Amino acid sequence: MLTLPTSAQIREADAFTISKQGISSADLMECASLAFVKVFTDCFPDRTLPLSVYCGTGNNGGDGLAIARLLKEQGYDRISVRIARFSANSTADFEFNRQRLNLTGILIIEMMDAGSLPSDDAEIVIEALLGSGLNKPLDGELEKLVAHLNGLDKTIVSVDVPAGFPSEGEIDLYSTIVKSDLVICFQRPKINFFFPESAAFIERFVVADIGLDEAFIQSLPGGRKLIEGNDIRKILRPRKRFTHKGTYGHALIIAGKPETMGAALLCAGACLHSGAGLTTACIPAAGLTALNSRSPEIMAVFRDGEDGIISLDFEKYQSIAAGPGLGTGATEQKLLCDLIGRAKCPLILDADALNILTENPGWLNLLPPETILTPHMKEFDRLFGEHASWWERIESARQNAADLGIIILLKNQYSFIALPSGDVFINPTGNPAMATGGMGDVLTGIIVALLAQGYKPAKAAIAACYIHGEAGNTLNEKGGMHSIPPGYLIRELPKTINSFIK
After folding, report:
1. Does pTM surpass 0.85?
2. pLDDT, tens digit, 9 for 90 and up, residues 239-253
3. E strands, 353-469, where?
4. Please, what is the end-to-end C-alpha distance for the chain in angstroms?
5. What are phi and psi of 147, to 5 degrees?
């Protein structure tokens, strides 16, 4: 897991690296600029492109000056540099790189205010005005300059973070912030890059390793971590000789009504394809033909009428999922209450099970330890109250997971997994082609399958989320699919899981 530091912690990592390696801050700036240029040249290999580099007078501007010099050395001859000299202040490393740039012959334009900005015929703007650490909205001349840049019909590439964009904390959608086509960020992505509000300002980002001390960064407190493929390889276990279906557990999925059997079929199918030894679907009797037609490997128990509730033997299962297409009537509410009170195995609650919890908020305090909830944004807000921003929502997830002793998997483009420990794990896999109805049912099926196989709830949630997104990525890359039907993804799961097992 990669620790995601705050901007203040990154400055601590800068200072630690400089001290440990015995280098100067200018040397570290050169490393950062070289890393930026490597990514930039991969993304924009055409050396004939006209480029403009807009620099502030702080260290981010110093990066921009060094980047301009290094790009010229790489053969980009059509470069101009524009310095926003809106105050008398500048850093030592900025001035050092300003002197070095003077020797290159690159055109340097100093802008004293934003009232009469020079014309710009560049196709790509490299923006190095502010960098990280901003703690207030832009104003004055800098705000005018950023508004001007946003009005140009240019490709904008920001250095580390777009000017005006906060690295952490709430993102004000009404603030003036550079709208970047690409952000090449240093060492780690910023926490706020993973929130939906960032889409208004960042088309995509690429991380450049600038050589900061990794052991120091990993030791930093904060509890926000980014999941990597190697983490999944460490979690998943290969199947050993002489194991059998009993080795891999029995999962129960309580889902579906006659008119919403699709959700039950998708969830149970994902469980089957994710390696549970046995899968049983608790469904209405009317759904048996559909279940047998689609997946004859999946067993069924029926829950028609209230008499079917108490007769369910929860103790025979190693994991239980409830909610997809379940309904929220009195019978379903009684069933969920019975499940919460009697189940001895790990639980995952999704969809209508979450809606029932919303109607019975006191039941949240009765959930068994490490129960996994998998809400999307609206379900989360119905459970825990309205939230003004994703920063606030994730902090709320963290607090509620800790207070209730449960795991909250908040689904989005980047899903967030809040653990009882207070840690929040961010899943980077997945893509917009997966934005189709039923994908959440598939994710629930993967989780309940891993729980049945004996994986601890936190590891099951983390691995399932990553596998789910990675299967979607494979389909999208392989087939160039505009949208991915959940059934396609289910069939991809065995290969995806196997790719992470040594």
Report:
1. yes
2. 999 999 999 999 999
3. 372-373, 407-410, 415-418, 424-427
4. 19
5. -60, -40
